[in-house]
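Hey, can you fold this one?
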Amino acid sequence: MTIFNPHDEHSPIILTVPGLGGSGPSHWQTLWEQSRPDTSRVELGMWDTPHRNAWVTKLDQAIRQAQAPVVLAAHSLGCLAVAWWAELAGQPFGYPVAGALLVAPADVDRPGVRPELGAFRPAPASPLPFPSIVVASSDDPWVAADRARGMARSWGSFFVDAGPQGHLNAASGIGWWHEGQQLLDRVLDTASDRSGRIRSAADARSVLAINATDAAQSHYLGNPA
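Sure. Predicted structure:
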């Protein structure tokens, strides 16, 4: 359970970042938005014909308008929007984005990728300026497990193998996705301490590694690395 409550003045705001096509009514992002008062969606627009610069601009506007620390919960192509925002924004470590849960990142660099995804290539490979967890399944049709693990390594993210659960979306049948909520709580607890102080990069990654490992071992088969 996160150390914060939804009305804590030091709690980060959670922004969901959907991928191609947006997230429908049964997607975990939509369910989280409906059930958590601290969570809202970034309306990137052009859901079916995304443009990288437009998405990054919309994401930047949402982050700046939050006027509080932000934790991002991104899915699929939304993960690439987050990575590109981090590449271009040049924020110092931990603020305004204090952390991210990056779920099933789409592989925009694979051969024959759809043009809608190709607009986001090449995938940024710089370390993210905030603590993060990458979660991917072993049979995701949009990204091979080794590629997802490689992206996590490049971004400095802690990697969690979710096992064979497809694209970790509504079609995966995960509903409200309790395991994902547990991992989100780990990111929230890592982002800052109870007083709202932003942790250093080394401290944040150390805390995240311990907490994410506990969460993953509690809910998934296989070992994160």
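The two ends are 22 Å apart (CA to CA). Let me know if you want another pass with a different chain boundary.
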